[in-house]
Design brief:
With 359 residues, this protein is α/β, with parallel strands linked by helices. It is 29% helix and 18% strand. The strands form six sheets. It has a seven-stranded parallel beta sheet, with helices on both faces.
Length: 359
């Protein structure tokens, strides 16, 4: 039966029962059950979240779950690119390509746990939510900590902090609540790791490895949380069987923070080079405003959060730290030959010219 048919089954009052007996885990969290679920990961076709599906699938399969990735986009255009080209290397993974807003392209279901790692607003999420309504035991929405309102007094975000009313993710969360789904919301920050579709630390390596200045928005001590994609996946994979996570929000992030200047220095150390850091104001040089800077991979403000709630309630803890991972990240960069590729430094050159610094 296609997942697209779930809406008609639900309308007829049919409920999909759990598969097989559930065995209570020997854990202090009595709500956690050991079981094999059918999991659907609806995965985005680009951006910083695109490789979450790959790593989440690995985590879930290792726990004994049945896993299908439903990837948005055209297979013929994307399957040879990172991270999607890695799907064929994951034993036991089923992959389906289509459009999450087109019922006719949905994979066969039903599914016990649905992960939405695709939609960013209600228009893109509503069809999947409506299809899963009353059918799945747990609906997991991968949102973004970017929905929090920035706070320059207490910059670290905690679950329950004020959100932006205009954020598309917030509208999705309200719909999940109104429709009564057994949902959880996870809010990632900046994510790094192999097979990413969006540069993070690579921006710093691009410059330092070529002995170019590293232009960083002033004051340079802005704190960010950088989280390895394996840690993101391991937290998300803690959901199946955990009823305590229902109707809860969790930040997905490392328990460490690092400054912009700190990232540059860490990359420089791994390369055996001293980075030439140039602090500048994006507003003054005409390359940015309102917390953004042209060409820079991060917001120009603090962007960090606490993962304490996930540690308490999900029994999760990160396995990575950015500082420990930098040497391997740099090796991955050089192994891919990126140091020999052309990089567009035109925005840098504009900044450096305004600051009277020359590469």
């Amino acid at each position: 039966m296609a997942l697209a048919q779930l809406g008609s089954r639900r309308a007829a009052g049919v409920r999909i029962s759990a598969r097989g007996p559930a065995v209570r885990a020997a854990s202090r969290r009595t709500s956690v059950q050991v079981r094999a679920d059918k999991c659907l990961i609806v995965n985005t076709k680009g951006g910083g979240h695109a490789f979450i599906g790959l790593y989440l699938a690995k985590e879930l399969l290792a726990k004994g779950h049945d896993v299908t990735i439903f990837n948005d986009g055209d297979q013929s255009k994307l399957s040879a690119k990172a991270p999607f080209k890695e799907y064929s290397n994951v034993r036991g993974l089923k992959v389906h390509w289509g459009s999450p807003v087109d019922y006719s392209s949905y994979p066969e279901g039903p599914f016990d746990v649905v992960y939405d790692n695709n939609g960013k607003d209600l228009d893109s999420c509503k069809p999947l939510i409506d299809a899963a309504k009353g059918m799945c035991k747990h609906y997991v929405f991968v949102a973004s900590a970017g929905a929090y309102k920035a706070n320059n007094i207490e910059p670290m975000h905690f679950e329950g902090d004020e959100r932006k009313g205009s954020a598309g993710h917030v509208a999705v969360e309200k719909y999940l609540e109104a429709e009564g789904l057994p949902y959880s919301v996870f809010q990632p920050l900046y994510i790094y790791g192999p097979h990413t579709a969006k540069d993070c630390e690579q921006w710093f390596v691009d410059r330092i490895i070529r002995d170019r200045p590293v232009p960083i928005p002033t004051p340079g001590v802005q704190l960010v949380t950088l989280t390895h994609v394996e840690d993101v996946a391991s937290m998300l994979a803690a959901v199946p069987g955990n009823s305590a996570a229902i109707r809860q929000h969790y930040n997905i992030c490392s328990d460490r923070q690092i400054s912009f200047v700190g990232i540059a220095k860490a990359v420089g150390k791994a390369l055996g080079k001293e980075p030439r850091i140039v602090l500048y104001s994006p507003e003054e040089v005409g390359t940015g405003k309102s917390g953004k800077a042209d060409g820079f991979p991060f917001r120009t403000i603090h962007f960090c959060a606490s993962a304490d709630k996930a540690k308490r309630e999900l029994g999760w803890s990160p396995r990575h730290t950015f500082l420990d991972d930098v040497p391997s990240l740099v090796r991955e960069y050089t192994s891919a030959g990126r140091q020999h590729k052309d990089v567009d430094f035109s925005v840098d050159d504009k900044i450096l010219s305004a600051m009277r610094v020359y590469a």
